[in-house]
Amino acid sequence: MTLRVTPCSETASWNETVNRFRGHPQQLWGWGKTKAEHGWSVDRVLVSDDAGTVVGCAQVLLRALPFPFRALAYIPRGPQGEPGRELEVLDAVSDYVKTAHSAVALSIEPDWDEDGKLSAGLPGLGFRRSENTILIGRTLILDLQRSLDDLSGDMSKKHRQYIRKSGREDLVYRRVERAEIAKCLAVYKLTAQRANFGIHEDAYYLDIFDNLGEDSPVYAAFSGEDVVAFLWLSASDYTAFELYGGMTEEGERLRANYALKWHAISDMKERGITRYDFNGLLNDGVSKFKMGWAKHEDLLTGTWDKPLSPLYPLFATALPLAKTGMRKARAVVAGLKGRLRR
Description:
CATH architecture of the largest domain: 3-Layer(aba) Sandwich
CATH topology of the largest domain: Aminopeptidase
Number of helices: 12
Oligomer: single chain
Strand content: 15-25%
CATH superfamily of the largest domain: Gcn5-related N-acetyltransferase (GNAT)
Distance between the termini: 64 Å
Number of domains: 2
Shape: globular
Low-confidence stretches: 329-334, 336-342
Number of strands: 16
CATH class of the largest domain: Alpha Beta
Largest sheet: 8 strands, mixed
Mean pLDDT: 93
């Protein structure tokens, strides 16, 4: 059966399709729109069978590259499609991307289990593993179909204690209004300065908030009018995905991040979402905090590339060097900004 790939230009129809196939929030229209406003372009495509029935879709992000590479195509946490047909959908999208965009490669980080049949089928479609990771495959995903008591029972004893402790503090936990985003970003800048990581300009985060709307809830712990901790999510009808977070020294002292995250998890469950993804585990303090929320870890399939050009081997060698240079440059800029704030 031949599958047909066609672009989609209708926001509501696109989001409905992504949610129908239990897609990830990074496949929603608003996420692609934000990326398109900050250096990428986006092509949202529907995949249909011979009868005209849509069986899958993919939001493809495109990044212009220096000559002679032209562009890199990237599908974050996609594609999505009818159960059992995801690989067919991906194969059709790959052919489309090669023809429509002349990309050097199609890079994917699907929301698929590492040890599942879908991951096992990727080499047969010409994909190879890549070390050029954007979204970390090792993560923690809570099953929100379980009761809150069961979820709490899987936490570490310390986490349960700190949730109770921070819940007793004179703090208010609630959704953040747009006018309060600046307070959260001020906390984020302090957090980035302490941990020495780079962040975007304020406009980027405001665009996420505006473009995703109800699909990008932000929660904060307030001490009076001050934000002492915040947690920023994105959410489809199926999956909640952590984007950003941070806290002040007062928030850390009060363990505000414990009750705050529990508040967000509970709210996502009440909304009917069934998966809560902590967005990556490393071997650092933040990951140690994340791992205390359950007794398990999850491993998604990671990053895969499909070469679409004879130049791919050169590109695969050059990209890690370019990324290292960009990280060093961002670290220098972050350090300079930190010194200027003092």
